[in-house]
Fold this protein.
Amino acid sequence: MTVEPHTPAAKKARRVALASYIGTSIEWYDFFIYGIAATLVFRTQFFPEFSELGGTLAALGTFAVGFIARPVGGIVMGHFGDRVGRKSMLVVSLLTMGLATTLIGLLPTYQTIGVWAPILLVVLRLAQGAGVGGEWGGAVLMAIEHAPANRRSLYGCFPQLGLPSGILTSQLVFLGLTSFLPEEAFVAWGWRIAFLLSAALVIVGLVVRIAIEESAEFARVRSAGLVARMPVVEVFRRSWLQLLIGSLASIAAPTLGYLVSVYLVQYGTNELELATTTMLWILVGVSVGWILMVFIGGLAGDLLGRKKTFLIGATLAVVWAFPMFLLVDTRSIGLIVVALIVITTANAVMAGPQPALITEMFPIRLRYSGASICYQVGSIIGGGVVPIVATTVFARFGTSTAVAALIAGVSAVSLLAILLARRTVLRPAAASESIPETAAGVQKKAEPPVFD
């Protein structure tokens, strides 16, 4: 069914997409301020007994801990999202993330409470991970399931816009803090301001999300009595191949996202000896174009096809990994900007169609669980493990070529996963579902999108 651009249904779809974008931006802001603080502050504040390399790895390790909790959040909220509804889980995920982030801003350091400081930091990071783990599936489903059939990739990319938007906001906040506060004040207490701001942002997000309506597609599943009793178990039993392909496909985009937003901040300041503010300003400029490119990637997914668009981005990621580090290592600001513009474009062209590509692998009744598991497994590897491995291989080999090989290899995994997957695995699952639209039994089928 095609929704006309000025109908009430179309206006509702745009409101839901905007609400998904706002909420996701807030959650990614919360997630990424931790990553920046881990590279700039946490080594000295929470791990002062470690060496410089050991402290950096420990701080990045606590960042990675959040990824361990993400599949737990995805599974738990996916279960209830497929049984109770998408909207309620979005509220829960936002509250969980916001509360944990605010408490990190109030957390005493190692100097004050000793070993309890890093322990509590890990606990709160686990809560952050659980919150963001349940966020992605619900946000993309609300956007996609409200969208016109021929614009699902475009509407589905709105939650993906939250990633670069969260990065941009977090960079701007830290830029302001590092620019206006003396370094000692920033390290001692100024970094906490970024975390405490989350409380105000979460209130805004909650107001927006509470005002939107539940997904009509899920409402039809519920009214037809087709809600799965154990959706996580059922999705593993019925759609294990889709879970495998979707998880492998979901590795590359977060790898590039966290490479740019977390690893390169540490690499630029520690290895290239560039000023922290220089690296942050570079990321601010790059993030603006990144947001635009995600939007273009989502639109291309509807016009060219999800699979084709994704493969273009993955191929660019593999090809550009080595030239990117060659340019970054020159320490030339202009060349670093060029390097990051291209790699974020690769990320955006994959990330734009990714929500529609992944969610359409699963039937509506199992979609929250299936999509969440795929995305979070990919994010654990791409966003949690890769930055630590990148730091380790650079320390071992002393050259960025090793890191470039890692990035190219990880991107190739996602490229091959989608390239070799058959249409029977990636076909829109909802197109084969027949669900009563009303009590009278009117049948509704989803229109198949442009896929290949």
Remarks:
- The longest strand covers residues 435-436.
- The chain has one domain: 9-424.
